[in-house]
Design a protein that fits this description.
By secondary structure, this protein is α+β, with helices and mostly antiparallel strands. The chain is built from 6 helices and 18 strands. 21% of the residues lie in helices and 29% in strands. The longest helix has 21 residues.
Length: 361
Amino acid sequence: MSRRGLFIQRKHHPHHRGPKAHKLAFCTDGTSLFLSFGTVLCSGYGIIQYRDQQRLSGTPSFICRSLGTCRRAISSIIRTKMLLSGDAEENPGPSLRGMQWNCAGLSQGKRLALHKTLVDERIAFCPLSETRMTPGEAACFSVAGYQHHGIARNCKGAGVSILVRGDLPVETGMDVVGRIEQVHATIHLTCGTALTVTSAYIPPKHTFTATDLDTLLTTDGAQLIGADANAHALAWDRASPPNTKGETLTQWCIDNQFLVCNTGECTRYARHHGESTPDVTLSRNCTVYTWTSLYSPDSDHHHIFFDVIVGDGTDALSCPRLQKPMYAWLKANWRNFCLKVDELCRKKVVEGRTSTPWNRN
């Protein structure tokens, strides 16, 4: 055929009051066939087709005669591609995926939701704050596929932790329970590079100085600090007025060559106080990009996702995929579940009634 394109349109009856007929266009450039619909139902379908090849007798002129045929072809390509990728990421790049979250207490439901988020987002490490665990809970706490390193809650703090994928070599650092709660973990990467991850928490009523912040310095190499500092400065918080703690933290970052990775997005929402950004991500000797704050239904603090590049190498980090957990839903005690949900709903209703302005003293 000498024609370079084919246009097909279904006739629209003048008495028909329904939606107009769709337009289907085929455009060939010699090696590829691209079809697109006038609606947004489908776009971006393509198959390799050599129009000038000799065909066997009885072979139809066009391979793709229907949308179903095209969908099956694309599904087959995707399945083949997934099989070829094997048990490693297809192209993870020379970076690690990180997550930061103030969980406001790790209940059993939050632990299941956290594990699902870690697996779905393929998180390599995750600094957590306000875990609110007792010493016994902190000692036996675990997440499938991850190593845990953290400290329990004391009389003035809330507890901090770090989760690192189980297949990454990790060296745990010191734990500090003081004015600034903090834990450290060093992830050893290829070619002798390493990343020190720090999780820190400063209660709202606590003040700090530059000397207190110097306790966060544990290495001269690459370091990433995920902290709920409860400090506000124009460098990362545009929703709250700056305070003294924000000025102190900003000057400390300048003196110690730390970069603020926040993009200005809010990281917390409270019903009575509105939006704010008490959580900060600080980096030194490493590159952090795609910093994003996303709403979390399990806490008043958002999930913070980011990618971090360590070193100048271009070798991809081949991290095996984590297997999603398999739950025995048929063995669950749904009667007990319903009772607990009803009890929690009644408790929330009572709390809502007592917190209304006309019921306050």
